[in-house]
Design goal:
- This protein is an alpha/beta fold.
- It is built from six helices and six strands, in the order H-H-H-E-H-E-H-E-E-H-E-E.
- A six-stranded mixed β-sheet has the order 3-2-1-4-5-6.
- Strand 4, helix 6 and strand 5 form a beta-alpha-beta unit.
- Helix 1 packs across helix 6 and helix 2 packs across helix 5.
- The protein starts with a helix and ends with a strand.
- The N terminus is likely disordered.
């Protein structure tokens, strides 16, 4: 599959991975407004965000698929870098998407869709970049999520994975 190919053929700038991280034992989505607000208050290290910006190589017109968009912390940060592009944020938890929608406050170019990463409700071959910003470890089946991201990518698309442990991978 395309995701398997992406994992085997990473770019020279990317750090290599042999297999996706083991899933967390608590894979239930953050399904309450209180959990979404608490999640939104958790800090993201500025260095991680800077590395993420560097690896994305955005030219301003890309369509970015933010898998596990959560409360939109990363997606909303990307929007100013995409004046003629956009971000589609997918998350399984409606409470997280509602929080992202509240923060969006009319920002153009950011669509929110409820869905599982392992079965993305996205047409194949439509995304320039598929981004797992600190979300892959939440999936019950991370490899299925990677395969789905690969399916959603255009032929020359890029997959970027961020881990809160200061590791960012781009393939």
């Amino acid at each position: 599959s395309r995701a398997d190919w992406l994992l085997r053929h990473s770019s020279p700038r990317a750090r290599s991975i042999r297999e996706p991280p083991a899933p967390m034992t608590h894979t239930r989505p953050f399904d309450s407004a209180e959990q979404a607000q608490r999640f939104d208050r958790r800090p993201v290290h500025p260095r991680l965000l800077a590395e993420l910006d560097d690896l994305l190589h955005l030219n301003g017109s890309e369509q970015v698929l933010d898998v596990g968009t959560g409360t939109g912390r990363v997606a909303l940060r990307l929007l100013p870098l995409l004046p003629s592009g956009g971000v589609v944020g997918v998350d399984a938890a409606m409470a997280m998407l509602q929080r992202a929608g509240e923060k969006r406050s009319g920002a153009a170019g950011y669509r929110l869709i409820q869905g599982a990463a392992e079965h993305l409700p996205i047409r194949g071959g439509t995304a320039d970049v598929a981004l797992f910003a600190f979300a892959l470890h939440h999936l019950a089946d991370p490899l299925a999520g990677l395969r789905e991201a690969g399916r959603a990518l255009k032929e020359d698309g890029r997959l970027v994975i961020g881990f809160q442990s200061m590791e960012i991978i781009s393939v």
